[in-house]
TrEMBL record, chain A:
<dbReference type="InterPro" id="IPR039424">
    <property type="entry name" value="SBP_5"/>
</dbReference>
<keyword id="KW-0732">Signal</keyword>
<dbReference type="InterPro" id="IPR030678">
    <property type="entry name" value="Peptide/Ni-bd"/>
</dbReference>
<dbReference type="InterPro" id="IPR006311">
    <property type="entry name" value="TAT_signal"/>
</dbReference>
<feature type="domain" description="Solute-binding protein family 5">
    <location>
        <begin position="76"/>
        <end position="400"/>
    </location>
</feature>
<dbReference type="InterPro" id="IPR000914">
    <property type="entry name" value="SBP_5_dom"/>
</dbReference>
<dbReference type="Pfam" id="PF00496">
    <property type="entry name" value="SBP_bac_5"/>
</dbReference>
<protein>
    <recommendedName>
        <fullName>Solute-binding protein family 5 domain-containing protein</fullName>
    </recommendedName>
</protein>
<feature type="signal peptide">
    <location>
        <begin position="1"/>
        <end position="27"/>
    </location>
</feature>
<comment type="similarity">
    <text>Belongs to the bacterial solute-binding protein 5 family.</text>
</comment>
Length: 518, 295, 284
């Protein structure tokens, strides 16, 4: 606090005389103040897999392989590795970039890469678990060849090595810093090699990143970016309209009118390649019959949800594939999720549904409009004859077997047809571990999954994925997909910024060429 | 108090159930529990906790993996500023309104004073906060709406917090003044021909001012509960958010420290108020606590 | 207004603001009791195609929904009525329980004196030294979220005030000549309690009750802000405000309607409480 207590008293007393006071000074045009809805507990590149930390990591770290966030289709480019080639079907060798300065002043070398990637390939500590399951379960180890060469070894030949290594959770951090500070302190201010370095960080509240003068690539276009958590919607929108921040995230369609009405501001919108969904617990006896779970799906009018809650800007899913995503275009003829209450009732009768209570458990404030969606779905289920109620849950960690449902999102983590499926429904994911999802009961599943995950022939992969989408949706029914939510960012009109392609939703790129303040 | 908090926190759940959305395997859970010493029997954990306290070690946050003291030290300034300024504003507004309500009791201005006081109180904090943001931030653009960069940023949060507290000051002071005004020495003063204002300020206000000190203690709970919500709306990263964040993920060390510090502050303030009483009026030795109940 | 004038005939000495407050409180109570019969719609029934309609008289209003609809197209008149019913029910039941427990403990402490009194008053002080919010959050975590748990937590919010009040009254009354005389004549404690203590205690308790009620009503809305409390989709005034706050920029009526109900209720109860206190306090 830089002001005296006397000033403060004066300020408090002057509340009603405020008309005469000047507005707070406009920020330096090279500083961007961002109001975010959720913040992060740590900035650990390897451990933070959530939608919240994803906002920040792109500023801070680089990966061996980078992806072009501007091209319509995925295009991989040299990152911290300048070249790579296959040594054998399961071994890829990467030549590292010389002279890359890390934020702690050290030079990036094979030790940093081994340290960083080994943490996600073979997590030795409990707290790095999620990452491993979601992304890197097919990765065995990373070996140092010489100071500037590493080899990455996979269990099976993996056509997705580049895609996976370009994810921010494969970001490279300084081993020297972690050795000196310990992982816990390093996680508060990690030394990556990105165009910005951590200036100050207050977990769950505020992060300031500053231009890193020694960045190996094109210099960052901004001096500073400050990410402040403004979790409440109305104050966040007001902060932008008012000039307290320059850029805000997460403005649902029905909140956008005041921003559209204001000159000098602009909105950037998209419909994420991401599902908001309920995972169904296949082992819960009341819903163990797939016909019941299918009925729960057919009872839902997804178009009504998408148009009412999201002003028509959300997409109603028709299966586990994204409309508008090039890799899924070949599936556009499939509609596996019609709104069909009559069929839902028929399935319930056939399955002998006898009024068993279904409990829709969800987290109240985690996903935008998650609470509204749940209340609408409850009515739709009741309409076809389910006896159902809602239950707000604080965390799903404990005793997950007792729940019927939990709310979840399935974002496209990497730009491949399997990019949203693999990271959430693979063997190593919690849904399999906790037995909510029981693929072993469906012999057709594993061969199809393997064919998509490890196949190399594009047409064969497409055929297998089509069959996988149909199998999961109509026979296994492990989920209720609700919608692909819309997202909007609002900013001052002099900020040129677009939503990036080919990277996971919520990533906020402010690198050279990706943001421009005039 | 230590036992209650320690046990209460543990009964309410396990931090690893809330920190890791995707759950943990049994081995991972065991490993994490061992890291934070949660695998030992509860009595041993408690003994270790008390032992560490004795050496001034308050532990490490399980969620953020850094010292508990750091978390609170970061959050303290903004909470302190908010609490002190809100308290000052509460008194600055509440005392005159309380006097007005007593002196003009049953008349128009007395009613207005009470009405104003209760209007702020009768509305949920967050509604008032958002209304203030929309009016003074958005519509009028007089004041910044979120954050804590400058003193101006604290104006709206302070007003919101004070609005909820003014009512009890007004009500309390009015009650005290009415009581004092009915007492013999005031009647005598009036009978001897002293003018209204001189009686009011010389006898009534002075005697009523003392009990108002008690309000400090009374308001603390309201101050803390209110500041949590206000911090959230105005994006002020203060103690309230630290504390509730810790409760939500069952971050035992953070939670335990919060309760302890809170209890300590309550005790210190109440002792301080009692001491002031004793100094100001030797006839009263332990009046503070019982008087509160009559407020 | 006819109700007000009728009341004034019955009680000519009633100041008009109090008469108004009493009338209003009575109307609100009747509305809460009759909610299931007078609400025009099912309060929880979502109608996605009719969401966020403004109140009658504004552009885009739907004729069936006088106060408009909320984020899920639910009728705000019906939700406000049922919300009033639930919130008032929780507040009243919770306050009554808190009052009974607190008064009982206070009486016990005042009657028994000695170590029991000290022990009981330590509990009372401990309650004050414990952040109430923590109690609530932990309570909900341990016992789950149900309406009865919320009621129990609400009752915990104010019991210590009643305990102090009751103890203070007992302590002062037992020194009075008439009580001492009764005791000297061999009256049992139960008789003294009924004949002497309760009549004197009743007025301050009622006052405390009316003054504590608004705080309890607001508490329920704080819980909703934090996303805990009564489970959706049930309407409570606090939940309506908590859920609607996101729409305050674009659809303020979703918050304004329940806020006005809370405001009216708390202002009436406050006014009545203060008036009762002034009347009960012979010194003033």
């Amino acid at each position: 606090m830089s002001f005296a207590r006397r000033d403060l008293m004066a300020a408090a007393a002057a509340g009603t005389l405020a008309s005469a006071m000047p507005m707070p000074a406009m920020a330096n045009p090279r500083e961007l103040r961002v109001g975010v809805q959720t913040h992060a507990r740590t900035l650990d590149f390897q451990a933070e897999t959530g939608n919240n930390a994803a906002q920040f990591l792109d500023c801070l770290c680089d990966t061996l392989v980078e992806i072009d966030t501007r091209s319509a289709t995925p295009r991989y480019m040299p990152g911290l590795a300048t070249a790579w080639h296959s040594i054998s079907p399961t071994v890829t060798e990467f030549r590292l970039r010389e002279g890359v300065r890390m934020h702690d002043g050290t030079l990036m070398d094979a030790d940093d890469v081994v340290f960083s990637l080994q943490r996600v390939f073979t997590p030795t500590e409990a707290r790095y678990r999620g990452n491993h399951g979601r992304y890197f379960s097919n990765f065995a180890r990373v070996e140092k060849q010489d100071a500037m060469t590493v080899r990455i070894v996979t269990h099976r030949p993996d056509p997705l090595v580049e895609a996976l290594l370009s994810c921010r959770n494969a970001g490279i951090a300084s081993k020297e810093q972690a050795d000196a500070l310990g992982l816990d302190r390093a996680a508060q201010s990690p030394a990556g090699s990105g165009p910005y370095r951590v200036g100050s960080f207050r977990p769950n509240a505020e992060l300031t990143v500053e231009r890193f003068a020694d960045y190996w690539g094109p210099a960052a276009p901004l001096d500073r970016v400050r990410f402040t958590r403004v979790s409440e919607m109305a104050p966040r929108v007001t902060a932008l309209l008012n000039g307290d921040v320059d850029f805000i995230v997460s403005i649902p369609p029905d909140q956008q009118a005041p921003i559209r009405a204001r000159r000098g501001l602009r909105l950037v919108e998209t419909t994420w390649p991401m599902f908001f969904l309920y995972v169904l617990n296949m082992n819960r006896p009341e819903i163990a019959d797939p016909r019941i779970r299918r009925a729960m799906n057919l009872a839902i009018d997804r178009n009504a949800l998408a148009s009412a809650l999201w002003g028509g800007k959300a997409h109603a899913p028709r299966g586990h594939y994204f409309r508008g995503f090039a890799d899924h275009d070949f599936l556009n003829d499939l509609n596996l999720l019609p709104y069909d209450p009559a069929e839902a009732r028929r399935l319930m009768r056939a399955a002998g549904y006898n009024g068993e209570e279904i409990v829709l458990s969800f987290q109240s404030a985690y996903y935008t409009y998650g609470d509204l969606g749940a209340q609408a779905v409850l009515d739709m289920w009741k309409d076809v004859g389910f006896r159902a109620r809602l239950q707000v849950i604080e965390g799903f960690g404990q005793n997950s077997s007792r729940f019927f449902t939990r709310d979840w999102s399935n974002p496209l983590y990497y730009p491949d047809m399997l990019g949203a499926f693999d990271t959430h429904w693979a063997q190593a994911s919690w849904v399999t571990r906790d037995k909510w999802f029981a693929p072993e009961k469906f012999p057709a599943y594993q061969p199809l999954y393997d064919a998509v995950r490890f196949g190399t022939d594009p047409q064969a992969r497409r055929d297998a994925y089509r069959r996988l989408v149909i199998l999961t949706e109509t026979e296994m029914v492990p989920w209720v997909l609700l919608y692909q939510p819309a997202e909007a960012y609002a900013m001052r009109a002099n900020i040129a910024w677009e939503i990036p392609h080919n990277v996971r939703p919520y990533q906020l790129p402010f690198r050279a060429g990706l943001v421009n303040v005039s | 108090m230590l036992v209650v908090t320690f046990a209460g926190a543990r009964i309410s759940g396990n931090p690893f159930d809330y920190l890791y959305d995707d759950g943990l395997t049994a081995e991972q859970r065991a490993e994490l529990s061992a890291e934070f010493g949660l695998d030992r029997p509860l009595p041993a954990q408690f003994a270790a906790y008390v032992g560490a306290l004795a050496t001034g070690n308050f532990g490490v946050s399980i969620a953020q993996r850094r010292p508990v003291l750091d978390l609170y030290a970061e959050a303290l300034p903004s909470t302190l500023v908010l609490a002190v300024s809100a308290f000052a504003l509460t008194l600055a507004v509440g005392l005159p309104l309380g006097v007005l309500a007593a002196v003009r009791r049953g008349r128009f201005w007395g009613g207005v004073a009470m009405g104003v006081a209760f209007l702020g109180y009768a509305m949920p904090h967050f509604v008032l906060a958002i209304i203030l943001v929309l009016v003074f931030g958005l519509a009028l653009s007089w004041l910044p709406s979120v954050g804590g960069d400058t003193p101006w940023h604290y104006v709206l949060p302070t007003v919101t917090l004070a609005a909820g507290l003014v009512a009890s000051v007004v009500r309390f002071l009015r009650g005290e003044m009415l009581e004092v005004m009915g007492q013999d020495h005031v009647r005598t003063a009036r009978a001897t021909g002293l003018s209204g204002p001189r009686v009011l300020w010389g006898h009534v206000a002075r005697n009523a001012a003392l009990p108002v000190l008690t309000i400090v203690g009374l308001q603390l709970n309201g101050l803390i509960n209110g500041s949590l919500i206000i911090e959230t709306v105005f994006a002020l990263p203060g103690i309230g958010q630290t504390f509730v964040g810790a409760v939500q993920v069952r971050d035992y060390p953070v939670l335990q420290f919060g309760v302890m510090a809170y209890a300590l502050v309550v005790v210190v303030i109440n002792l301080g108020v009692d001491a002031l009483y004793a100094v100001a009026d030797p006839r009263i030795r332990r009046g503070g606590a019982t008087r509160m109940a009559e407020a | 207004m006819s109700a007000t004038s009728a009341l004034r005939r019955v009680a000519p000495r009633l100041p008009w603001p109090i008469a108004l407050a009493l009338t209003m409180a009575a109307l609100l109570l009747i509305a809460a009791l009759a909610a299931p019969w007078i609400a025009p719609f099912d309060p929880d029934r979502t109608q996605l195609l009719r969401r966020l309609r403004p109140p009658a008289g504004f552009e885009g209003a739907h004729p069936a929904h006088w106060f408009g609809t909320d984020q899920l197209g639910r009728d705000l008149v019906s939700r406000a009525l049922h919300g009033l019913r639930t919130s008032l029910g929780i507040a009243l039941i919770g306050s009554v329980i808190g009052c009974l427990i607190g008064t009982g403990i206070g009486l016990l402490a005042g009657y028994l004196r000695g170590r029991v009194e000290t022990a009981l008053m330590v509990i009372v002080d401990a309650q004050i030294a414990l952040p109430y919010l923590l109690l609530v959050l932990l309570g909900l975590a341990v016992f789950g979220t149900s309406t009865w748990v919320v009621i129990a937590l609400v009752s915990l919010a104010g019991w210590e005030n009643y305990a102090r009040l009751a103890r203070g009254q007992v302590l002062s009354l037992r020194e009075r000549p008439f009580v001492e005389a009764s005791l000297a004549l061999g009256a049992g404690p139960g008789w003294v309690l009924r004949q002497h203590i309760m009549p004197h205690l009743a007025a301050p308790l009622v006052v405390q009750f009316t003054l504590g009620l608004p705080a309890v009503l607001l508490l329920e809305s704080s819980l909703s802000f934090l996303g805990i409390g009564v489970q959706p989709p049930a309407a409570t005034l606090g939940r309506m405000i908590g859920e609607g706050r996101h729409q305050m920029l674009t659809a303020p009526w979703v918050v304004v309607v329940p806020t006005l109900v809370i405001l009216a209720l708390t202002l009436c109860v406050q006014a009545i409480g203060d008036w009762l206190r002034d009347r009960a306090d012979p010194r003033a």
